[in-house]
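pls design
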């Protein structure tokens, strides 16, 4: 995405994939086929499953495009490992709801500081989503300590400025479940932030999961040199299944029954890499990718047996809402309603592609039939109905696209600033 045009094209492709109800979507770029068909479940079925299987370990790999957001539950303990980019807010919230069951997050883990893993911490803090503890890799590059995304989000998420910094040899006990997350890497600082990723092994009565962040081949070589037992039932494949990960030696050492790749081919072309998939399959792993599921992949590990299901959105898409205008000169976005009914905006949000900025509509906001609603900012001189508490959101000199998402994180419509 080196130019604004290219970026808009890629996001438009992504939007077409997300909104399957739109007519005329193009051919989907898919990962190599998984070794078995996946059944589909709704979020409510996920909720019922986690409530009825306290002896299982569940992993919800949310479809956040080219990024990571993993929700891990064992017993009553629930943790979020990475939070994707800001645009995926609705998807992460939709996945958290059934996994939490109305409870509170026990922990949030940030594997490393790249924005496709860390950006979601910003809306989590603004949303009021709380957790008991916030963990992050003790090694990081390219950012000052005070600007580290975990540090910036810690007080809003946990009520404390403390971040629990993890490195090889540390262990996190998951409440009174008897399960642990053992930190296998990093052991030292790497120049490439991907290789500073937390690599953690879940060990519990239900089985083992190896969670690898964006570890690349150098970090992988370090990990193999330590001589750890890497065998696992479930592997979260490193770095979106790119070609700079997952050697044959690593795939064989893990020997996972299920390998989960979190990516979107439209956002990161070339992923999942066919050679990575082939190496995993040669090691006996069933390979699945989040992009092949609407909301994400629901993995159940119980008694050493692994199942994976595709989670649907459940709620129908909103029909009739659209972006009626994007005014860069006065920093305004106009939302319209083509339908004959008032349409609620509760849960919906706007996202600025260029500025990576997000505005969540307040509960109770709606658009009357045939009418419009205007969102302004601190830079807006004209009238508006709702305030986006920011300034200079819409870029005046470079291409910018404003996306309207529903509460599930699906693209409803988008509008461009005309540049």
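designed seq:
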């Amino acid at each position: 995405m080196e130019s604004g045009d290219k970026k808009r094209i890629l996001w438009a492709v992504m939007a077409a994939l997300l909104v399957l109800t739109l007519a005329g979507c193009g051919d989907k770029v898919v990962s190599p086929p998984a070794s078995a068909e996946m059944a589909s479940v709704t979020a409510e079925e996920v909720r019922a499953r986690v409530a009825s299987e306290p002896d299982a370990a569940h992993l919800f790999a949310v479809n956040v495009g080219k990024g990571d957001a993993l929700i891990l539950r064992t017993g009553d303990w629930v943790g979020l490992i990475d939070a994707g980019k800001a645009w995926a807010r609705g998807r992460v919230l939709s996945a958290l709801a059934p996994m939490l069951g109305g409870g509170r997050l026990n922990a949030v883990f940030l594997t490393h500081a790249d924005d496709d893993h860390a950006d979601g911490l910003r809306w989590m803090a603004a949303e009021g989503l709380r957790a008991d503890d916030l963990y992050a890799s003790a090694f990081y590059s390219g950012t000052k300590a005070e600007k580290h995304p975990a540090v910036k989000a810690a007080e809003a998420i946990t009520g404390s400025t403390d971040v629990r910094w993890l490195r090889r040899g540390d262990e996190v006990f998951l409440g009174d479940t008897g399960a642990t997350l053992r930190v296998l890497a990093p052991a030292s600082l790497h120049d490439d932030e991907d290789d500073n990723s937390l690599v953690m092994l879940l060990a519990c009565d239900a089985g083992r999961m190896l969670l690898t962040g964006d570890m690349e081949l150098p970090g992988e070589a370090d990990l193999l040199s330590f001589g750890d037992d890497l065998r696992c039932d479930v592997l979260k494949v490193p770095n979106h299944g790119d070609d700079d990960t997952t050697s044959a030696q690593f795939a064989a050492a893990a020997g996972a029954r299920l390998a989960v790749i979190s990516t979107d081919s439209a956002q990161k072309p070339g992923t999942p890499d066919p050679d990575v998939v082939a190496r995993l399959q040669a090691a006996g792993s069933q390979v699945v990718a989040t992009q092949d599921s609407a909301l994400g992949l629901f993995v159940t590990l119980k008694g050493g047996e692994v199942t994976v299901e595709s989670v649907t959105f459940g709620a129908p898409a909103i029909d009739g809402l659209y972006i009626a205008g994007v005014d860069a000169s006065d920093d305004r976005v106009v939302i319209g309603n083509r339908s004959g009914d008032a349409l609620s905006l509760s849960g919906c949000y706007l996202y600025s592609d260029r500025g990576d900025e997000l505005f969540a509509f307040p509960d109770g906001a709606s658009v009357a039939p045939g009418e419009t609603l205007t969102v302004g900012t601190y830079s807006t001189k004209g009238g508006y109905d709702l305030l986006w508490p920011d300034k200079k959101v819409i870029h005046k000199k470079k291409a910018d696209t404003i996306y309207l998402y529903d509460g599930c994180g699906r693209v409803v419509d988008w509008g461009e600033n005309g540049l």
